[in-house]
Amino acid sequence: MQRDKGHSDSAGALQFGKQSAEPAAMIRQLHAMVNEARAPLLDPTAGSLNECRERLNEVAVGLRALLAGLPASEPKRKAALAEPMRALRAEIGRVAMLLDSAAAFHTGWMHMAACMVSGYTANGSPATPESGRRVSLEV
Prior knowledge:
Number of helices: 3
Structural class: mainly alpha
Number of strands: 0
Shape: elongated
């Protein structure tokens, strides 16, 4: 499923929740959407993270609609959907790892920036930033 950058398919337009839609096809479509959300995370800029967040919100809406429409009393159908759901869960796990890595990367840089502002210790390592607020006034 290709989409233009800057163009967002709404989950409603994806026909989630309609009884005529085949659950396995819906799961494959959700998997493709999560895969698309993962692609921008290879360059974890603020814009990429925001694009991923928007796409994952669409996936969440679709997944809720899918789960609400699944009949609970059909074990044969559940067994048929187990593999596509496992693949979807694995793809979501990969996206979660990339998001965690991006967050750790940016947190590390924030810490380094704070250390750079605080100066250095006598042995040359970055000083621990002061935890309180500072106000500097010239009179």
